[in-house]
Design brief:
Helix content is about 45%, strand content about 10%. It has about 725 residues and is α/β, with parallel strands linked by helices. Strand 16, helix 16 and strand 17 form a beta-alpha-beta unit. The two termini are about 50 Å apart. The structure holds ligand L2IWW6SD. Keywords: Fatty acid metabolism, Isomerase, Lipid metabolism, Lyase, Multifunctional enzyme, NAD, Oxidoreductase, Peroxisome.
Length: about 725
């Protein structure tokens, strides 16, 4: 709702009241309309201030109302009522003015912002455009290039930048509402003719066509199939080429197109999913709201390879004191230099405060004796990690949290090396650890609720989205990756090329196809794991070369590694690169020849494989594993899996995540296609639809938020 009060006799004050962000719900819109009429009708009131309760102007339209039938006054007539008012209306912007909130502010005649406020049009991230006149007013106010930038990227600007751009009239370090009241009094009685943005002509730069062409190219490059950014460009184009009223009609048409799209539904689902994962629960009943995190002031990182360095940077930038340990002098000195460089680049590019003084380097594990939490990031080798955990358990003070950055090893086995297994938890960072937003917090059967809560909170403090997951091979992300990769290898055996598979996945929206990712992360990583699992066999011909444990196996990755083709780092992998460390993947005729030879050796006849088969086999196998993970209680809900895939594995956000995507395709259709492929490939167990997927499909494709009701009480796999 909106409250009305009178300040200093002559200023009518409308206060938006809808915690936590004063979103423009039906009740708030109704309140604004009613209170505007009241302010305009009271003769003593000479001017109006609009502000938000609790230091937040407005977070925009209420996203929770988007799925439901529209009630209350629409936004567009509301902003027109404000702009057309005969008394000056001043927006007092504290905290946030986002989306519809900024549109509300732009309909006011003046805008006063607090210096700490942020403003922006983030609709594009929800699959929408600013549909209450934002695409028509902003270019009129700040010009086409700046408006295109803000509307197509959704980036938030500081009050200082907003002032520079001309979005706000004044910025204050003092109380913005008081400043707005004073301002409102000072403009009482002044003409408002020049203050109604909709009446401004839209600036028409001479190189208009080139500007729009560049903007379209830019969004095509970065949008990876998302439709909202390009539609935003079209709406701004209407502001320049059409009179205001016609431009508003065009904005409405384009908004409706986006509003009803599957992409908008996916992005809005994802918005809430990313927030829902902080309300975690574990298989043995621990929960976010009943578990108190322990205080952590000083942390340690053991092992300063690529991951350890990134983790050190993340911790230091988040304000933790860090002891960074690498036992080899030479490597320690290299790491110190690398970490310093990373901190300096962070300060230069993102304005993160320099944190050199937060880090103490040491060659000795003894240096961690007084820390509150240790993150082990040594080489991915169980024997080595066990030794480190035994050492840590002996050296560290009682009560210290022992965390491992393993990407898939058994947390419980490591916990059993320590005197306090309840204090052990996985913190699986993603490379580069100081950049990637995802953190999988892996609890073992014995991890205490406080320890899970502490790791989750540490992740948040480091600016990450932490997702709690159970302990199993590969946890959630890497476990699902296995069947996906496996299908990609099988497709090569059957006649596809890496380029073809990657193209299909990139057209779907992945930033990189599976083979390019494999080249980037190094083929040797998976090879080492397969070797330690006893999967890599010396026999390279005959049927046994392609069968392990009675199931189909492709040794293609192993064969490439045997030839020293580890990907980008060696300049050769599934693609070729101009030099070791090169980044530009080019098709490799050698690889094509090798695949032909391989097929001939194994009696495989190459066939034409179409787009649909590549997509379905790769994605549905991955999705099926996701359902198995839910069934096993490794992830508490589909949102956890979707957030992990979007933030950690390049799944296109506008497709919501693999579990949301499955729901959009239709669970019955996913089951049917998996069954189809399983009939053709009976030796691939990953194509057998899991029972939870079948159960959900059979119960009539319930909406994703209802899946938890069907998922049985979770239990740990170990
Ligand atoms: C018919 C439409 C016509 C015109 C077009 C207009 C369209 C729009 O305005 S779309 C909305 C545009 N606004 C946004 O996209 C803002 C989204 N919110 C955020 O970016 C952030 O929440 C924040 C910067 C406002 C605050 O961040 P932070 O302090 O980190 O808190 P949280 O993100 O955890 O949010 C707290 C809480 O608030 C809920 N919430 C936030 N914004 C909205 C909103 N616009 N509508 C409804 N609910 C909102 C958020 O979900 C959190 O609650 P839960 O934890 O319960 O999910």
């Amino acid at each position: 709702m909106a409250l009305y009060s009178r300040v200093s006799g002559s200023v009518g004050m409308i206060t938006l009241q809808n915690p936590p962000v004063n979103a423009l719900s039906a009740a708030v819109r109704q309140g604004i309309v009613d209170m505007m009429h009241r302010a305009l009708s009271e003769p003593e009131v000479k001017s109006v201030v609009i502000c938000g309760q609790n230091g937040k102007f407005c977070g925009g339209a209420d996203i929770r109302e988007f799925g439901a039938k529209m009630t209350g006054p629409p936004l567009v007539p509301m902003v027109h009522l404000i702009e057309a008012a005969s008394k000056p209306v001043v927006a007092a912007i504290e905290g946030i003015a986002l989306g519809g909130g900024l549109e509300l502010a732009l309909s006011c005649h003046y805008r006063i912002a607090h210096s700490k406020a942020t403003l922006g049009f983030p609709e594009v991230a929800l699959g929408l455009l600013p549909g209450a006149g934002g695409t028509q007013r902003l270019p009129r106010l700040i010009g086409v290039p700046a408006a295109l930038d803000l509307i197509t990227t959704g980036r938030h600007v500081t009050a200082a930048e907003a002032r520079q751009l001309g979005i706000v009239d004044e910025v204050t370090d003092l109380n913005a509402v008081d400043a707005a009241v004073k301002f409102a009094q000072s403009v009482t009685g002044k003409s408002l003719d020049a203050r109604r943005i909709s009446t401004y002509p839209c600036p028409r730069p001479p190189d208009l066509d080139a500007i729009f062409e560049r903007a379209m190219q830019q969004v095509r490059r970065s949008a990876r199939g998302a439709i909202a950014p390009g539609t935003c460009v079209q709406a701004v184009h209407a502001a320049v080429t059409l009179p205001y009223a016609k431009g508003m009609e065009r904005e409405r048409e384009l908004f409706s197109l986006l509003f009803t799209s599957g992409q908008a539904r996916a992005l809005q689902y994802y918005f809430f999913a990313q927030r829902a994962v902080s309300r975690w629960s574990t298989a043995n009943g621990a929960r976010w709201d009943t578990s108190k995190p322990r205080p952590v002031r000083k942390a340690a990182v053991i092992g300063l390879g690529t991951m350890g360095r990134g983790i050190t940077v993340s911790l230091a930038q988040a304000g933790f004191s860090v002891v960074a340990v690498e036992t080899q002098e030479q490597q320690l000195s290299e790491a110190k230099q690398a970490v310093s460089g990373m901190l300096e680049r962070g300060a230069k590019r993102r304005g993160v405060p320099l944190a050199h003084d937060k880090i103490k380097y040491s060659c000795s594990v003894q240096a961690v004796a007084d820390v509150d939490l240790v993150i082990e990031a040594v080489f991915e080798d169980m024997a080595l990690k066990k030794t480190v955990f035994q050492q840590l358990s002996a050296i560290c003070k009682p009560g210290v949290l022992l965390c491992t950055n393993t990407s898939g090893l058994d947390i419980d086995e490591l916990a059993s090396q320590t005197q306090s297994p309840e204090l052990v938890v996985g913190m699986h960072f993603f490379a580069p650890a100081h950049v990637m937003q995802l953190l999988e917090v892996v609890y073992g059967p014995r991890s205490s609720p406080e320890v899970v809560a502490t790791a989750m909170q540490m992740g948040k403090k480091m600016g990450k989205v932490s997702v709690a997951v159970g302990n199993c091979r590969g946890f959630v992300g890497n476990r699902m990756l296995k069947p996906y990769l496996e299908q990609a290898f099988f497709l090569l055996e059957e006649g596809a090329t890496p380029e073809q598979v990657d193209q299909v996945l990139e057209e779907f929206g992945f930033a990189m196809g599976v083979f390019k990712v494999s080249d980037l992360s190094g083929l040797d990583v998976g090879w080492k794991v397969r070797k330690s699992d006893g999967l890599v066999s010396p026999a390279s011909t005959g049927t046994s070369a392609r069968i392990r444990g009675g199931s189909r196996y492709s040794p293609l990755g192993d064969l490439l590694c045997e030839r020293g083709r580890f990907g980008q780092k060696t300049g050769r992998g599934w693609y070729q690169y101009d030099k070791p460390g090169g980044r530009v993947a080019k098709p490799d005729p050698w690889l094509h020849g090798f695949l032909e030879e391989y097929r001939a050796q194994h009696g495989l006849v190459a066939r034409h494989i179409d787009h649909q088969e590549v997509l379905e086999r790769c994605l549905y196998a991955l999705i099926n594993e996701g359902f198995q993970i839910l069934q096993d209680g490794i992830a508490a809900g589909p949102e956890d899996i979707d957030v992990i895939y979007v933030l950690g594995y390049g799944w296109p956000r506008h497709r919501g995540g693999p579990m949301f995507y499955a729901g959009q395709v239709g669970l019955d259709k996913v089951v049917e296609r998996l069954e189809h492929y399983q009939q053709i490939h009976p030796d691939v167990p990953g194509l057998q639809p899991c029972s939870l997927l079948r159960k959900l499909a059979a119960s009539g494709n319930p909406a994703i938020h209802k899946w938890r009701e069907v998922i049985q009480k979770p239990r740990s796999q170990l």
